[in-house]
Design a protein that fits this description.
CATH superfamily of the largest domain: Ribosome-recycling factor
Strand content: 15-25%
Radius of gyration: 22 Å
CATH topology of the largest domain: Topoisomerase I, Chain A, domain 4
Distance between the termini: 53 Å
Largest sheet: 4 strands, antiparallel
Number of strands: 6
Shape: elongated
Helix content: 55-70%
Strand order of the largest sheet: 3-4-6-5
Number of helices: 4
Order of helices and strands: HEEEEHEEHH
């Protein structure tokens, strides 16, 4: 019985991670507003070592559509610029010799629809993660029933597991709906 409860807790932890991953992926989707999250995961070659951009430069939002990157060493302007260009975020950096400005262009209707598709795909990916956690937990529950756990307890745990899955799928749907509304708002 205790073993089955720990299986449910483990499944819940995996489902929570799937939801966290979704949040992390959605932060990267550009919504027409400047956000340092657009470039926070970018790695820049710093003396031969890939280093997060936030560790070699001051990154901040100056207004609703502009991100400013001020490297602590001037010789890092070029590598930072190359990383941004190669990242395919759809923004061309403007380098004035001291700082790099990223002007986030307003989104076109077509681009907004593309971003909504990406958000929905990320949501589906999270739902798959939730279902995989359910599948693993179900296998453990069925094995426990075979090994002597009472069938009614097994069925009750399966129902608890399905309720947990439904709750997480509902959360994923809410997060995606919120992001879709944010993207489509002009």
């Amino acid at each position: 019985m205790e073993d089955v409860s720990s299986i449910l807790n483990e499944a819940k932890a995996h489902m929570s991670k799937a939801l966290e991953h979704l949040d992390h992926e959605l932060v990267k989707l550009r919504t027409g507003k400047a956000s340092t999250n657009l470039i926070s995961d970018m790695m820049v070659e710093y003396y031969g070592t890939p280093t997060p951009m936030t560790q070699i430069a001051n990154v901040q939002v100056s207004d609703a559509r502009t991100i400013i990157i001020q490297p602590w060493e001037r010789n890092m302007l070029g590598p930072i610029e190359r990383v941004i260009i190669n990242s395919n975020i759809g923004i061309t950096p403007a380098n004035d010799g001291e700082i790099i400005r990223l002007s986030v262009p307003p989104l076109t209707e077509e681009r907004r629809k593309e971003l909504v598709k990406k958000a929905k795909a990320a949501g589906e990916e999270s739902k798959v993660g939730v279902r995989n956690a359910r599948h693993k937990a179900l296998e453990h529950i069925k094995k426990a029933v075979k090994d002597g756990l009472a069938e009614d307890i097994g069925k009750r745990k399966e129902t608890e597991l399905q309720d947990l899955v439904n709750k997480f799928v509902e959360q994923v749907d809410k997060v995606i709906a919120t992001k879709e509304k944010e993207i489509m708002t002009v």
